[in-house]
């Protein structure tokens, strides 16, 4: 009989922080995406982050990080994801 592995969303289990946790990787990736889009003449870019307490889609980033970088919320994509836009105009 196979045993079931606990996942990050399993009740009662906490994830241990990775050695890379809180190193600013998300911010660096967003800055690179903004620079890339701007250099190619984009008028805006969108992201679909979630609230920090969301049990799913956490890999998409968190709303607060995008807000701090100048993105504005323009809508919702389902019940968890926020539509955040960065305008170059």
Number of helices: 2
Biggest sheet features? 3 strands, antiparallel
N-to-C CA distance = 59 Å
Quaternary structure annotation: single chain
Widest sheet, order of strands: 1-3-2
Mean pLDDT equals 83
Describe this structure in words.
It is flat and about 35 Å long. It is built from two helices and three strands. The longest helix has 15 residues, at 25-39. The protein has helices spanning 25-39, 63-68; strands at 44-47, 72-77, 81-87. It has a domain at 43-89. The relative contact order is 0.18. Helices cover 24% and strands 19% of the residues. The chain has a three-stranded antiparallel β-sheet with strand order 1-3-2. It has 89 residues and is α+β, with helices and mostly antiparallel strands.
Summarize the structure.
With 89 residues, the protein is α+β, with helices and mostly antiparallel strands. It contains 2 helices and 3 strands. Helix content is 24%, strand content 19%.
């Amino acid at each position: 009989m196979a045993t079931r592995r606990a996942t990050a969303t399993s009740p009662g289990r906490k994830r241990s922080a990775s050695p890379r946790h809180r190193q600013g990787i998300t911010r660096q990736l967003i800055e690179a995406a903004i620079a890339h889009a701007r250099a190619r003449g984009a008028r805006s870019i969108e992201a679909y982050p979630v609230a920090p307490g969301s049990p799913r889609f956490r890999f998409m980033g968190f709303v607060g990080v995008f807000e701090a970088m100048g993105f504005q919320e323009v809508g919702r994509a389902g019940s968890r994801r926020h539509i955040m836009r960065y305008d170059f105009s």
